[in-house]
Fold this protein.
Amino acid sequence: MSLQAKLSAVGLAFAVGLSPVGFQDALARAARPSPEQVSPEYVSPEHATELYFDAARSGRVDLLDGLIKAGMNPDERDPRGFSPLILAAYNGQVQAVDFLIAKGADPCATDPKGNNALMGVAFKGDSKVAERLLAEHCDVNAANKAGQTALMMAALFGRTDVVRLLIAHAANAALKDQAGNTAVDLARQQSNSEMVTLLGGG
């Protein structure tokens, strides 16, 4: 079955709001079409990719499943270099994160600036998604191209619950970014005394 035929079935599924089972039926029909089954709906590869990333952002696991089965790469990148997993994590879609990891998506992958999913989650303060990502044993002290770690981002934005999680997973508060700031320095710059204490800064 060609990718074009599969994507035509994707178009049909989206057009009529098929369930996951109905989606698979549409794929099966596309593999052996008859004249009365020909659908005017067609999803181009470009549109399918756009739908794929929208599904990641909105946590539509059913659509992610159908699109991956139709041939989409779990580690596909959008024009900004974000993977579906990074987008799902940033938008708090823990079920989509879990699903994408199960489908082979790299939980440690980074965007063009060197930010991984955990860094985005630390910035947002979503402890549930952070906990799921930490279970994948990626380097908790990984730094982006500016030398910033997930702990620094959580400290800067006062994400106390995420900071506690990161420290429990051996995040290093003494690391410095390219500007020479530690997580404690960033907390001090925000006059966040509770965070400074939590990070062991006195």
Remarks:
- Residues 158 and 195 are 7 Å apart (CA to CA).
- Confidence is low (pLDDT under 50) at residues 1-9, 14-24, 26-41.
